[in-house]
Design goal:
It is built from ten helices and four strands. By secondary structure, the chain is mostly helical. It has one domain: Orthogonal Bundle (Neutral Protease, domain 2), CATH 1.10.390. It is globular and about 50 Å long.
Length: 286
Amino acid sequence: MIKAPRGRQAGGCRAALLIATLLISGQHVAAQAPNFANPQMTLIRIDVNGFDASEADIRAIVTSAGRELWRFFPDYTIEPIVVTRGREGPVSLYQRNDTKEIVMRLDTSKTLWAQYSYQFSHEFCHVLCGYDQDDSGNLWFEETLCETASMFTMRAMSKSWKTDPPYSNWKDYRDALRNYVDDIIRKRTKVHDIYADGLAAFYQKHQAALRKDPTQRDLNGAMAIVLLHLFEEEPTRWEAVRWLNSAPSPAGETFKQYLQKWHAAVPKRHQPFVKQIADLYGQKLD
């Protein structure tokens, strides 16, 4: 089965992960059903085999994560998704299963809800981007967007859980989600001080490595820190990613051509945002 080399788990804070594991223990008020903010989130099926956690709790956490992105796609129809247990890192397969579902594998288990949230958000972003299998020379940018989605989602969850957690007794554990992401950001900033030279210089320095291997999480993650501010400044910008793969990427496509194609595909309301990203990377669009 063909699969994308997607979503290798980013390094996170062991302490924060332990806190999230211990506190968000899967115990909940049985009478309370998870809040499905968008009807399409019910198209996500959970195959619990191998997770060692309840279907209800896994559904609650992925629904909570998914809605933080999905709310910005008001008229976008996605294919059904099945979430399964992975063993070689999180991944979304290109090939659909026999029932025409997108197969999303999460490499986590038990009640490690911070990992579920981070991995699901990354893979769900690929789905929203309309991920496909063509030339992978610029796939690193989609991977960077998906890392951004993970950080954005968990920081948003840490706010929304204050008033609207999946279960009432998960409300107090929102800080563990925020700490998990903030620790990832701190560690990535230590490895790559991306603000020292700017995003354009960072890209020029690492472009060969990125084109060769699009899933270098230290590089994807460093760039995601910059992009995160753009999406938190105006979250409706997320809708622009649905047109990222609107046309195939031919072999040898340059990053500028890739961005130009995206710019041409998005509605006019999103063109200034795409141009802003291009400018940050030192790519002047026509």
